[in-house]
Amino acid sequence: MDALTIHRLHFAFTITFHYLFPQLTMGLALLILILKTMALRTGNEHYSRAARFWAKIFAINFAMGVVTGIPMEFQFGTNWARFSKAAGGVIGQTLAMEGVFSFFLESSFLGVFLFGEKRLGPKAHWFAAFLVFAGSWLSGFFIIATDAWMQHPTGYRLGGNGEIVLTSFWGLLGNPWLFWQYLHNMTGSVVTGSFVMASVGAFYLLTRRNEDFGRTFVRLGTIAGTVSTILMAFPTGDGQGKNIAFHQPVTLSAMEGLFETEDGAPLALIGQPDIERRRLDNPLTIPRALSFLTYQRWGAEVKGLTAFPPDRWPDNIPLLYYSYHIMVGLGTIFIAVMVLASFSLWRGTLYRTGPLLWVLMLLLPFPYIATTAGWVTAEVGRQPWLIYGIMRTPAGVSPHVSAGNALFTLLGFMGIYTILAILFLFLVYREIDQGPEHAEHATEGAAGV
C-alpha cells in the first residue's frame, strides 16, 4: 500500500474507534438530564439514583473519549500536514472553540455532578447536569461545524500562496450544511443512548435484578428511542439527504447505485453495484420513489453517475453504497422495534414480554454499527475531495511521512486501542453487574468519609 492509503486507514481507524464513545456521552447527557428533571419534579430519590448510575457509565465513556480524541488533533499535523497548513486558519477556529469552551464546560461540571451532589442541593445539582448536557452538545456542534465546512466550504477565500483564509466567522457557523448534519448527528447520539439504556434495563428485567431500575431504564429508553429514531428519518435524515442532493449530486448517485440519469428515478432497496458495467445488479426497487424523496415530484430528473466526469466520482462506490444501505436498513429496523416496544409499553405488557425484552437487549451494538456506517457514508461520499471542490485528498497528506512510518504508528494504535477496549468493557461490565444499588451505597460511603 502507498502512504496515502495508509494515512487514510490510520485516520479512519482512530476516528471510528474514538466516536464509539462521544456518541454515547452525548446521548446519555440528555437522558441523565431527563432523569434529574424527573427527580426534581417528583422528589423521588429513585430517579436520582438512576441518574447517578448512568453518570458513572457516562464518566467512563467520557474518559475514553478524551484519551482517544487527543491523538486525532495531532494527526492533522503528523499525517495531514499540507491540509493543516492550507486550512488551519479555518478549522482551527472551531476546533479551538470546542476545546476551550465546550470541553472544559463539560469536564468541569461533570466533576461537579459526580462529586458535588451532597453539597449542591437538588436544584444546583440539576443545573450541573444541564451544563454537562450543554457542554456535550456544544462540543458536538463545533466538531460538526468543522466537518460541515469540509463538506460544503463557506465564508472563505483563497490566498496568494494557496492558503484558505477565513473571511466570515458567521459564514462558517451559519453554513447551510451544518444545520441538518448537526441535528442528524445529535439525534443519532440519542438513538445510541436510548438503545443502550433500554438494553441494560431489559437485561435487569430478564435476570430479575434491580427490576425497579430496569423498568425505569426500559421506559425512558423506549420513549426516547421512539422519538429519536423517527426524527432520524424525518426531518433530519430528509434534510441531510437534500444537502447531498443539491450540493453533492454525484454522491447521491453513488449512494443509490444510480448510473444513468432518469426521470422518475427508482429507490434501490437492495442490489450490488457493478462499476465495470455501470449498472446495479439484482436490484429490488420502489419505482419513482427516489425522485419523490429528493425533489417531491414523482417524475423529477435525478442525475446518474454517467452525468459526471469519472474523476469526480467517489473513489470507493461499493463501500459508499453498502454503508449507506446498512445505515438506512438498520434505522428502519430501529423504528419498527421502538414503535412496537412503545405500543407494548402503552398496553402495560412490555416488562413481561420476554421476546421483546430480548430484542431490546440484543440490539445494543447495532446503533454503533448504524452510526459508523453513517459516518462512512458521509466521509467516503465526499471523496475524492478532502475539502469539497477545493482540495483533493492526495493534496492534503504529509509529504515526508513514509508508508512504513505511517503503518508502524497504525499498528501501534491498534495495539493500544485493543487494550483500552478491553479495559473499557471491563469497567462498564463491572458497573452494570454491580447495578444502581451498589452505586448508591458507594456514593453514601464516599460521602461518609
Task: Provide a descriptive summary of the structure in words.
The chain has helices at residues 3-19, 22-42, 45-78, 81-115, 117-120, 122-151, 169-173, 176-207, 211-247, 249-256, 289-295, 317-347, 354-362, 366-382, 403-448, and strands spanning 156-158, 164-166, 262-263, 267-274, 279-286, 301-302, 385-387, 391-392. The chain is mostly helical and 449 residues long. The protein has one domain (3-261, 303-438). The protein has a two-stranded antiparallel sheet with strand order 1-2. It has a two-stranded antiparallel sheet with strand order 3-6. It is globular, with a radius of gyration of 23 Å. Residues 445-449 have low confidence and may be disordered.
Number of strands: 8
The percent range for helix content is over 70%
Class from helix and strand fractions: mainly alpha
The general outline is globular
Radius of gyration: 23 Å
Can you lay out the helices and strands and say which pair or pack?
Layout: H1 3-19, H2 22-42, H3 45-78, H4 81-115, H5 117-120, H6 122-151, E1 156-158, E2 164-166, H7 169-173, H8 176-207, H9 211-247, H10 249-256, E3 262-263, E4 267-274, E5 279-286, H11 289-295, E6 301-302, H12 317-347, H13 354-362, H14 366-382, E7 385-387, E8 391-392, H15 403-448
Antiparallel strand pairs: 1-2, 3-6, 4-5, 7-8
Helix pairs in contact: 1-3, 1-15, 2-3, 2-6, 2-8, 3-4, 3-15, 4-6, 6-8, 8-9, 8-13, 9-10, 9-12, 12-14
Features:
449 residues; two-stranded antiparallel sheet; 74% helix; globular; mainly alpha; single chain; 7% strand
Give a short summary of the structure:
Helix content is 74%, strand content 7%.
